[in-house]
Every structure is written in structure tokens, then in C-alpha cells.
């Protein structure tokens, strides 16, 4: 029998994006939402799945993620907790291995060395747990230089051409390239979007129904894949108040205690 079977909706898990779904973007969760979610949890299992790292998620959840939620998935599930218990952690380096990582980094640096662009500064490749971030101008440019690069890139397609070369060179490595922000693009394994967390759910519990709530469910948004996954029932929300409203109706939990 499932450990969640004593809850009214014991075969169901509700997963929530953090930013814009549980909280105002980049802000902390409100006390009334914390209180409401505790009453939801009495009826159904709940979990968080955020793109940020665990430190940032715990900041936004006022350090209660791993006590007030049944699952906490940071970096889309690369760091995973069931309650306070850490599940396996995965990294981009672990996925690629050192040899391939160096091939990838060397290729990027060689290409950057061959580029002639108006300005170059420092930190061209930034190493992160779940990805590398590549910037032709370098991440420690000033704000003015950043704006200038963005305008130059719009006209000359520096990043687009760069990604095209990488896609060709590293075809078959299972990599995904995502141009975002003003000066860089990310490189990470295919499938390391929010659907990544679902493998932990499958390994550590047995739910018949998984609901997902998120605010960036449109194409290109970071909730798009999990919202549209066949394994979840997607719910688009516009704010944490909307999340609360939808949960209140779905599970018959009054908004005020
Ligand atoms: Mg969001």
C-alpha cells in the first residue's frame, strides 16, 4: 500500500512550479499560501519542481520546502528530495564525462577565439551543475556592453551561427542548445527540462494521477514540456492566488481555514 494512501486523494500527486505559481516571481511565499498548502497536503501529496537551484527555492519557500512538501525538485529534478531525504543528484559533467566535456569546451573556445566582434571581455564558458553557459562576449561584460552585444547579435546572428556549428559538430551527443537572455546560450542534455523530475516520482512512489501547475506553459516557456507531458494532467495558472483557487475547487479545500 502506498505511503500516501491515508490521504483522501492517496493515488494523486500535485506538482507545482515555484516562480509565478507558488509565489510572485522572485519573491517569497506568503503566509496565507503556506497555511493553505498545509491543508491541501492533508488531502493529497504535493511537490515542487523549480528551475532554480535548491538554495534559491528554499529562499522563496522560507526554508520549508523539504518539510512542508512531499517532494522538492530543484534544477528541474537534477537535485531531488523526498521530504528531507536526498534522492540521487545528476550533473551535466556526470552525463558527458570529462573527455567529452573538454571536447565541447575546446570547440567553443576555439570558435570564440576566431570571432571578430565589437567587444570581448571574460568568462566565455561558465560551468554549472546542469549545463554550460557559453557567451561570445564573455559574461563579465558591463551592462552597456551587454546591451550593445545583444543589438549586434540581432543583426549578425552570432549566437545562432554558433549553435548551428555545435549542433553539427556534436550531433548524436544528445545535447540541447537554448539561446536565452542577451549574451549567451545554454548547453544541456535533451530531456533535462521539468519532465526530468518525473523519473524520480516513478522510482520512489506509485501515483495513478500526477497534476502539474505552472505559469509558463506556452511553447518556449520552462513549464511547456511537463505541462504537455502524457504523464501529467496540466493546469495553467496566472498567479499563486489562481493556483490556490484551482486547488480549492479540485480538492474541496476552503481558501480560508
Ligand atoms: Mg514559473
TrEMBL record:
It is an enzyme of class 5 (isomerase). The keyword Cell division does not apply. One of its GO terms (biological process) is mannose metabolic process. It is found in: Cytoplasm. This is Phosphomannomutase. Homodimer. GO terms for molecular function: metal ion binding; phosphomannomutase activity. Involved in the synthesis of the GDP-mannose and dolichol-phosphate-mannose required for a number of critical mannosyl transfer reactions. CDD domains: HAD_PMM. Mg(2+) 2 binds at residue 232. Mg(2+) 1 binds at residues 17, 19, 215, 227. Keywords: Cytoplasm, Isomerase, Magnesium, Metal-binding. The active site is at residues 17, 19. GO terms for cellular component: cytosol.
Amino acid at each position: 500500500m502506498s505511503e500516501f494512501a491515508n490521504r483522501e486523494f492517496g493515488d494523486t500527486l500535485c506538482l507545482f512550479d515555484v516562480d509565478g505559481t507558488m509565489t510572485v516571481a522572485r519573491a517569497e511565499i506568503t503566509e496565507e499560501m503556506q497555511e493553505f498548502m498545509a491543508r491541501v497536503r492533508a488531502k493529497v501529496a504535493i511537490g515542487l519542481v523549480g528551475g532554480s537551484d535548491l538554495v534559491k527555492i528554499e529562499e522563496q519557500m522560507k526554508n520549508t520546502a523539504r518539510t512542508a512538501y512531499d517532494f522538492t525538485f530543484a534544477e528541474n529534478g537534477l537535485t531531488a528530495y523526498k521530504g528531507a531525504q536526498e534522492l540521487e543528484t545528476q550533473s551535466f559533467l556526470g552525463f558527458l564525462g570529462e573527455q567529452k566535456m573538454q571536447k565541447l569546451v575546446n570547440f567553443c573556445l576555439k570558435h570564440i577565439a576566431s570571432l571578430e566582434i565589437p567587444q570581448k571581455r571574460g568568462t566565455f564558458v561558465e560551468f554549472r551543475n546542469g549545463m554550460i553557459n557559453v557567451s561570445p562576449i564573455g559574461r563579465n561584460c558591463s551592462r552597456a556592453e551587454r546591451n550593445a552585444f545583444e543589438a549586434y547579435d540581432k543583426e549578425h546572428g552570432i549566437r545562432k551561427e554558433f549553435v548551428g556549428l555545435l549542433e553539427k559538430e556534436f550531433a548524436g551527443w544528445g545535447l540541447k542548445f537554448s539561446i536565452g537572455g542577451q549574451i549567451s546560450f545554454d548547453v544541456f542534455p535533451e530531456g533535462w527540462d521539468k519532465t526530468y523530475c518525473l523519473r524520480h516520482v516513478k522510482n520512489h512512489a506509485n501515483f495513478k494521477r500526477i497534476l502539474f501547475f505552472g505559469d509558463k506553459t506556452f511553447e518556449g516557456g520552462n513549464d511547456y514540456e511537463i505541462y504537455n507531458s502524457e504523464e501529467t494532467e496540466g493546469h495553467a495558472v496566472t498567479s499563486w492566488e489562481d493556483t490556490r483557487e484551482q486547488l480549492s475547487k479540485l480538492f474541496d479545500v476552503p481558501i480560508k481555514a
